[in-house]
Amino acid sequence: MNLAFSDEQNELRRTVRDFLDKNSPETEVRRLMETSEGYDPDVWHQLAAELGIAGLALPEEYGGAGCGFVELGIVLEEAGRALLCAPLLSTVVLAASTLLELGDAGACADYLPGIADGTTLATLALTESTGRWDDPHAITCAASPSPSAGSGSGSGGWTVSGRKSFVPDGQTAALLLVVARTDAGLSVFAVAADAPGVRREPRATLDQTRRQADLTFTAAPARLIGTDGAAWPALERVLDLAAIAVATEQVGAASRVLDMAVDYAKTRVQFGRPIGAFQAIKHKLADLHLAVESARSAAYHGLWAAAESPLELPAAASLAKACCGDAFVTAATENIQVHGGIGFTWEHPAHLYLKRAHSSRQLFGNAAQHRQRLAQVLLAELPA
Asked: Which residues does the UniProt record annotate as the domain Acyl-CoA dehydrogenase/oxidase C-terminal (predicted)?
């Protein structure tokens, strides 16, 4: 296992950071938080079409760059650092990975080129009222054959009915990959967001930088993706990739708030000295540095497993999500404490990171759930 980045990967990081420093400053994040879309289409077009970020990890045959999850992880880390408001996680990680993992060549040829060039926004609609990502038994949304639904990429002889909750970017995605139950088991269906029988409701969230929606389907025309009833093993891998993606975002954001705290401790003077000179602040920041760097190692190990070691992916994903989620929440909380009174104000960016920390810790399973899963995975590997 090699966790060192190549010169090309370091250059990718520099390019993405420069772009986000220019196009996703705090003022722009706050502006987008108040818009109905929650992102800037022009910035997304530049990221996808000009920088090639949307297709970075997609195969060249579908218009991608043919890179791997490590390169995508670099982008995600920088996006977390900048609190980027964009459909990066929903479209590039969830939707694109679902299409690839299901192995439906026709669906990949139809949908992935649009994702790669940024013209298609997509998401995965999996969770329902329980909010659980890891429980296939909680899925009640149903699909049934309907020959009268017609044929083609928009309606492939099926209809979907039911309700999905907590769908990332569900209010703006044009392509909805809906997990529904058929007589054969769990399957994934492509549903056009503007199809008849689809209703979308934006969901009020703590973290306004990442939008969610509730979706209602009433006999909506749908296209089966992959094999009927055989979707869950592929979805489990997609969720592992998504957990690693969020963990990498969390590391980028945690590193940013640590930098904010250190910079403030150097400049804020109290009793004639910078507050960073006081032992209590030194110890606090040293502990934060250790937590963030430990989380970074877990996230990078997860990226390596996603790219190179499928057998280690479940354990690596749960380790990364648990470690990075806790580190980000701790860093965001202590950042406010270091800043004192100003850290509690709306005008200061500290609360933006704190909200992202708490919301992302719940996304794709919280730390306790992933620690329990990690223990189960490791116990299963022990000799009898």
From this structure: 232-378
